[in-house]
Amino acid sequence: MPTASERGPSPRKELHIFYVLDTSGSMTGTKISTLNHAMEECTQVLKTEAQKNGDAMLKIAVLEFNSGARWITSNGPEAMEDFEWEYLTAGGLTDMGMALDELNSKLHKSEFLGSMMGAYIPIIIFMTDGAATDDYEGALAEIRQNEWFRHSTKIGFAIGDEADSKMIASVVGDSEAVIKTSDLELFARLLRFVTVTSSMRNTSITPESAMDGKSIVADARRQMDIPDSVTVELKPEEYDPEPDPAPDDEWGEEKW
Amino acid sequence: MKQASAFHHTARGQLHIMRGAPCEDHSASFSHPDGRYHIAAAADGHGAKECFRAAVGAQVAVETAVECLQELAGAVLASEEAERSFQLDLFSDPRYRAATLRRLTDTLLARWRDRVQEHYREHPPAPEELGEGASLEDIPDQSIPRIYGATLMAALLLPGCLLLFHQGDGRIEVIYGDGTLDQPVPWDPRCEFNVTTSLCDADAFSGFRSCAIDLAEREVIACYLGTDGVEDAYRDTYGDLGASHQRMGGVHTFYKHLSCQLVELGPEKFSSYLEELLPRFSGEGLFSRAGSGDDVSVAGIADKAALEPLADRFRHEVKRYGLDEALYWAEDELRGKRRKHGILQKRMEAAQAEADRLRPQLAGLEQEREQLKAEQQKLAASVQHVTEELDGIQPAQGTEDAQIPEPDRERISKAGCQNLMERLNACTARLKQLDGPLQALREADDRLAQAKSSFEDYDAEVQAIRARLDNIQREIDALEAPAGNGAAAAET
To answer: How far is CA A118 from CA B218, B270, B285, in A?
Structure first.
């Protein structure tokens, strides 16, 4: 009979929340300060959610990009009890392409998503205040081949007037999953709302119940009574929307 | 296998239980009463939404497989001549072998399809099965097998050979007489990472894989059929990860462990052991961090007596695998804590530096505060004394004050009182000034205490993991020390 040391703990699927954050030079000052405080708040909220959630183990990974991209959580996604927010500083360019390449390299079972019990649909929250300074389109085309990326819940924040809404809409795949605002306090509140809502919905029992980014943004607009101006209204031909996933022709068990 | 026994068990997966989903695996085993042949079969119904009768499909697949293999065994063993002829033709003529195996799988598949069609006709789907908005018209005849989609593995042990059949994922594991473990059925790369081929595929006939092992050429002492609920519990199923975690290391270890249990417990108690183990394995795993959460089926045929000489070696290898796995996860836990440990340590060091910088000031300020308080008390008492004088209290007779004329005495007292009040006010003001810096210094000390406490608590967790790591490493060293690495089995 196997001993207790040979047995593992009771299993919980993992829910990964990825933050891909622009820390370029234009974020200097109030913007980076707001981002740091907002992320601290989100962290506290997620820690509370994690303690309440018996179905899922919440894990968080943070990727910052400026001139290049760097994982803050370089050892892989961290369980909430092991996560501490480190204040980010701003400087450099806006290498969104490198961020997407780096994200693509880790969205695999053999890398950041190697949970034994499987994973819920990941959540990826992008934030930028500018336009890409490298070839992000090539990197975007690559990462769209990644099934985890295709199926993940993606939400984008375009902060300030200089933020390239078309770029962020392309990255998240749907302009209706993008929030654009210059109101930093509103940004902080929305970031927190989106974090909590998506983490609760994506740990529902069936994959069908998981929400896409568009629904979460719509939910935020309804529940938080925010102005219409935060919506990014773009026709598909104005940006590069995510193509519909290919129909399933394999008899797969649910991936999650 | 001269003293073979057959066994099977299916457990509903932990995640299926949590979701309220039915068990979609099925398994069976059969031993002929005179022990001349044994059969094992296992099937896994698909979890996809459109396969809403996959549990039935899996059951029909297993029952059909057992039936077909019983018919084949009956025909082969009808006489000594038939048996001899079958054995000779099977292993001397590859075309005969391929055709025989193909005939069996074609028959099995055709019967399965007929039976699921019949089940469908006799039990048309209820609206709740079809789902919202769907109707029977949405399911053309050629799509009916999809509803029952499943994988299938089957084994037939005859006196001279072992025949194996496989459609879809899951693994058929064979243990040879020399202790080697192998998966001899050709693999289909379409059956990896949670996708699989199926009995309901258009190319299922040609997609069936099979093999025949001549027991005169190579002794087989155990054969296990495990649905993917087994292999999905292990990290190394699809690749080498180092140490004992070679590709399929976890699956091999699982079956070595089962073999040891069969040797220890005997066939009857072994069946009870499987019934207890598999539900737990689905959730908790075995020599792994956790189970797959999926339904798990294990069916097999094994010779307890033939396994016995290998039991000690298998136990050693199983223990080693378990320790390597424990080491990996302890290192992983440590990795996950490294960043926060560093942050808390830096915070503590910064708080310490701040407190060290301020502490000398604190001592000086507190001393000044004590002195001022004493001074304040003295001045307050003096002010009171002079005030009482001014209120007309006569100095006592014979004292120096009594010799000063009264108007002068009043003037001097008023001036003195004013002076005292000024000094008292200055003292009080200075005390108030000191409140701010003193509070800041105490807060720095509090911050240091908090930072230290946070770091020490977290560091204790980290040290506990390090201690656990060291213990595991010591166990590994002790395990390997007597025989070195020579005891490792040759595995494929």
So the answer is: 39, 30, 13
Residue B395 sits in which domain range? 336-480
Contact assignment for B336 to A116 by CB distance below 8 Å: no
B317 is a domain residue:
yes
DSSP string, B32-69: -TTSS-EEEEEEEB--STT-TTHHHHHHHHHHHHHHHH
pLDDT of the residue at B318: 96
**Cα separation, B99 vs B186, whole angstroms:** 16
Strand partners, B166: B153, B209
Chain A to chain B Cβ contacts (< 8 Å): 112
pLDDT at B490 over 60: no
Number of folded domains that form chain A: 1
Q: Contact, A139 vs A104, CB < 8 A?
A: yes
Does an H or E element contain B209, and which?
strand B209-214
Answer whether residue B490 is part of any domain.
Answer: no
Distance CA B41, CA B58 (A): 10
∠B457-B462-B465 over CA atoms, to 5°?
130
In a domain, B57, yes or no: yes
Contact B154, B41 (CB under 8 A): yes
Helix (H) or strand (E) holding B347: helix B311-390
pLDDT digits (tens, 9 = 90+) for A181-222: 999 989 999 999 988 888 876 555 444 455 788 888 888 888
The CATH number linked to B384 is 1.10.287
Contact A117 B196 (CB under 8 A): no
Contact status of B350 with chain A (Cβ, < 8 Å): no
Of B298, B314, B333, the one marking the end of a domain is: B333
Rounded to whole angstroms, the Cα distance separating A168 from B136 reads 44
User: Are B193 and A109 inside 8 Å of each other by CB?
Assistant: yes
Q: Three-state SS for B450?
A: helix
Residue A253 lies in a domain: no
Structure tokens at B312: 């000690």
- Whether the CB of B280 is below 8 Å from some CB of chain A: the reply is yes
Contacts of B293 in chain A (CB under 8 A): 11, 13, 117-118
Tens of pLDDT, residue by residue over B174-217, are 999 999 999 999 988 877 766 788 888 888 888 899 999 999 99
- Containing domain of residue A113, as a range? 17-236
CA distances from A144 to A103, A198, B320 (A): 11, 21, 41
Rounded to a whole number of angstroms, the distance from the CA of B57 to the nearest CA of chain A is: 14
pLDDT band at residue B42 using 50, 70 and 90 as cut-offs: very high
Rounded to a whole number of angstroms, the distance from the CA of A68 to the nearest CA of chain B is 21
Are residues B170 and B113 part of one domain? yes
CA B268 to chain centre: 30
Residue B489 lies in a domain: no
pLDDT exceeding 90 applies to what percent of chain B?
A: 58
Length of chain A: 256
In Å, what is the CA distance from B409 to each residue of B384, B388, B397, B405, B415? Answer: 16, 13, 14, 6, 10
